[in-house]
Each structure stands twice: as structure tokens, then as C-alpha cells.
Amino acid sequence: MADLQLTSVEKVYGGGFKAVHGIDLHVEDGEFMVLVGPSGCAKSTTLRMIAGLETITGGEIRIGENIVNDLVPGKRGIAMVFQNYALYPHMKVRRNLSFGLKLKREPKARIESATQEVSGILEIEELLDRLPKQLSGGQAQRVAVGRALIKSPEVFLFDEPLSNLDAKLRASMRIRITDLHKRLRDEGRPATVVYVTHDQIEAMTMGDRICVMKEGHIMQVADPVTLYERPANAFVAGFIGMPEMNLAPAVLAKDGAMTLTLAGQTIAVPRALAQRMDNHEGPVTFGIRPQNVEIVPTNTPDAFSGKVHNIEFMGHEVNLHVHIGDSNFIAVIPNDKFDTTIQRGDDVCVRPDGARIHLFDQKSGANISLADQTRALS
Predict the structure, then answer these.
(1) Are residues 3 and 55 in contact, defined by beta-carbon separation less than 8 angstroms?
(2) CB-based contacts of 309, cutoff 8 Å, min separation 6
(3) Per the similarity annotation, which family is this (predicted)?
(4) Is there a single domain that holds both residue 176 and residue 33?
(5) Is 258 inside any structural domain?
(6) Which helix (H) or strand (E) holds 109?
(7) How much is the pLDDT for 372?
(8) Helix, strand, coil shares of the chain as percentages rounded to 5?
(9) Burial of 146 (0-12, 13-18, 19+ CB in 10 A)
(10) Does residue 181 contact residue 32 with C-beta atoms inside 8 Å?
(11) Cα 55 from chain centre
(12) pLDDT cut 90: percent of the chain above it
């Protein structure tokens, strides 16, 4: 395997539209890197540039020691798994798996042993003599993964490979792919993976690290825990997490003690946070995860009063939607701790966990409440 390095990579289309804005990204040898972001953020374009299916208009792509900017896809040492599987419909599974090795004129014995090994790893031995039209979606996806795996490429590229599957099958395939990656690593054959998805659940459960993209820019690259607990900016904070982080305009003021005012209601800023915010006053964006707020009695200090707008029973928990001024806040409450007498239209008080408050600059979106003042990477 090999590492992957993108340096100042750009993509400009005819007419001057810039889709990718000089991004820098390093994927370590054997790492599982996920590119995630909303539709139109250029994650698939970035993947296609790595694959050689899109030309780059600036910067450098390096796989291992080789600069691959001008190499055709077949010479880059990559294998790609597409959203639509892209199996040859007239070839049985056995030939679909082995076709790439046959093109390389590998010995027949090597092709047969590799086919048996890969089909065993992916548990598709019984499918070898079937045509693609005889496969279920999950089976076809495993064959597509096997066709990439059999090539032993430098880098595996996945372009939203699970988006055509139902929710239950997606969950099963997430586990299969991550288990395969770990198995190869344990066997001393680490697989470098770049995986594109718009589904943050896939990103958070599969990636060693995650690259969050927006409009052709990288917002943050970090492991899942860091992205969730220490988002570099308001975009990452709002994109990562289910339900998404509560975000609302507020005003930070210092008159002796530091205070935060939201929708005309003022709370004290916890001492540890106030010390980090010593040089900041004025408009900010207040953020708190729904899991880090609680419903408290009226007149509780450092709480915001609001009106219940909606109640979602999720089985093991309840999502309580509360309007505080013009902002909608969500409180995630364990089912066994929810006060079932609460109804839509009731007045309630919401108290944020002071240790979990995030404050973002309203202009740049940067998280100004982190101890090390972490910023977006590009």
C-alpha cells in the first residue's frame, strides 16, 4: 500500500467555475479516510481527480513516491468501487472478479487462487457462477468490492457505494467493509482507503479520520471524536451530530463577570470558558449539542425559557423541540427521564451544560471557545 498526498489541488471548469479551491490532504498508508459533506461540496470531484477520471487544474496528487497528475487511471495503482457497482452484466461473478487480473496477463493459477481468496473473504463463493442480474443489491456490492480488492491496489477509492441499499443492508455493509479493512491491516496488508459519502453516520462509524468539505473547501480533518467534541467551525458543528448542534445568535459581554445573552435572556459564562474568551466581546454564535442540555424547573439559574414546539418519541429517547426567541433548540432526553406531562405549547426552561458550550465567530464561523483556538485546515 501507499500514502496519498494532495497539495494545493484545484479544479476549475469551463467558464471559470472553481469547484475545488486548492485543498491539502494527507491520507496515511493504511488509513481509512472518509470525505463527507452536503451535495455539491466537491467530495466526489475530489475522488475522481485522485482516480484520474477528472483532470486537475492546479496542484499535485502523489500516491506513494509517484506524482500521478498526468497518469491515466490504469497506471495510478488505484481501484474504485462505484455507486452503481459497474459490474459487467454479461460476465458471471467469477469473471467479473478476475477480469482485471486477466487484462494484466497474470498466470492462470494466480488468477484462480486470488479469486478463491477474495470470494472467501467476502463470503461470495456461492455466487461465483451467477450473473449480476441474479444478485441482490448487497451481493452486487460485495462483488464490486471484491473486484477492487483482487487487484491489490495502492489505494482503494469508494464513491458512495452504499447509497443504493436499504437502511438495514447499509448498516450490514458498513460493518463488512470496516471489518475487511481491519482484517487486512491485521494480516500485514494495510489498505489505504478514501471513501466518499454524504451520510454522516457512515462517516462517523467507518473512518479513522474524516475530512469535512463545503463548497470545494476542507473545513476540518480529524478523528470522529474530535469532530464531534471539538468542531473547528460552526459548519462542522452543525453538520456532524444527530440531531445537529443547536446554534443561535447571541451576544457576549463583560462587565465584571462575563455573560451571554440569547433572545433577550442572559446567563453567566462558566469561569473556564470565560478565561478562554477574555479577548472576545460582542456578537457570537452560541452552540450546544442536544445531548448536553436539560429541561429544568422555571427560574433555574443559567437557563433559557422557551415554548415547546414539538415532541418526537424516538423509542429510547425523546427529542424535545423548544422555541427560544426565533431559534429552535432540541433537547435529547432519555425516555425513562422524560416528564410525560409536558405537552406542545408548554413553557419550559432549557439549561445548557456549561462545560459543553461552544462559541463561534459570527463572521468567520471559527470556534473561538476551544482552548487551543483550533481553526479550519483550509
Answers:
(1) no
(2) 321, 322, 323, 328, 344
(3) Belongs to the ABC transporter superfamily.
(4) yes
(5) yes
(6) helix 108-121
(7) 60
(8) 30, 35, 35
(9) buried
(10) yes
(11) 25
(12) 78
